[in-house]
Amino acid sequence: MLILFVGMLFITSAYAQLKEGQSFCDENEDGSYFPLIFKERKIFWVNTYYTETKIGTKELNGRTYFEYAQTWENGAVDTLYLREDEGVIYQYAACCEEETIRYDSKFEKGHQWKNMNGGKYKIITYDGTLKTRLCEYKNLMVMEADMGDVIFQFYYLRGHGYVGATVDDTVISFATPTFDLD
Predict the structure, then answer these.
(1) Could you tell me which of 98, 174, 93 has the C-alpha nearest to residue 136?
(2) Which of 35, 76, 137, 178 could form an SS bridge with 72, CB 3.0 to 4.6 Å?
(3) Cα–chain-centroid distance for residue 44?
(4) What is the dihedral of CA 171, 7, 79, 99, to 10 degrees?
(5) CB of 83 closer than 8 Å to CB of 93
(6) Cα gap 141→107, rounded to integer Å
(7) Residue 166: strand, helix, or coil
(8) Mind listing the pLDDT tens digit for each residue in 99-148?
């Protein structure tokens, strides 16, 4: 469950803002790697899934955050608070009553940082690829997240946000426009 929770914390971003005629698998070259404007999205994670729904906004410590409910297949709900300021995405941790940087659009390949829980992050590339059951992505931003006991690679597509994750080169998560993959 810890892996699910940690992974869930670091994969928030949208793919719902498609341009007319744009495929779910295509990047929006004008978009952000962390768009915060989506209303709902669906993510498969290991052997389960969750929906992420924007609830609205919430004022915390004098700052306004977008509030998201992450509803898991088993009915558990986690709440996520994100805000953007001049290209920097911040996440508020209710447990600790503080925020941490999730991503900065000025980060270059090789940039490293830590979050408040001790996770170590690094931008691996802005030219990554990922093949999921639905898409063959290219031109991805790949972020490594070293959680101590597991190292994730998170993949972000411009204009969509999070599209998938791997551990030891095995896909463990991916975004989908539908839950029915049969």
Answers:
(1) 174
(2) 76
(3) 12
(4) -130
(5) no
(6) 11
(7) strand
(8) 999 999 999 999 999 987 788 999 999 999 999 988 999 999 999 999 99
Question: Tokens 């006991």 identify what position?
Answer: 149
Strands 151-157 and 161-167: antiparallel
Neighbouring residues of 85: CB distance < 8 A, sequence distance ≥ 6: none
Smallest CA-to-CA distance from 167 within 137, 138, 145 is with 145
DSSP string, 78-130: EEEEEEEETTEEEEEETTTTEEEEEEETT--TT-EEE-TTS-EEEEEEEEEEE
Tokens, residue 79: 């709440």
Sheet holding 112-114, edge to edge: 98-104, 88-93, 77-85, 63-72, 48-60, 40-45, 170-176, 161-167, 151-157, 136-146, 120-131, 112-114
Pair of tokens at residue 157: 């597509």
Q: Report yes or no: 68 and 80 within 8 Å, Cβ to Cβ.
A: yes
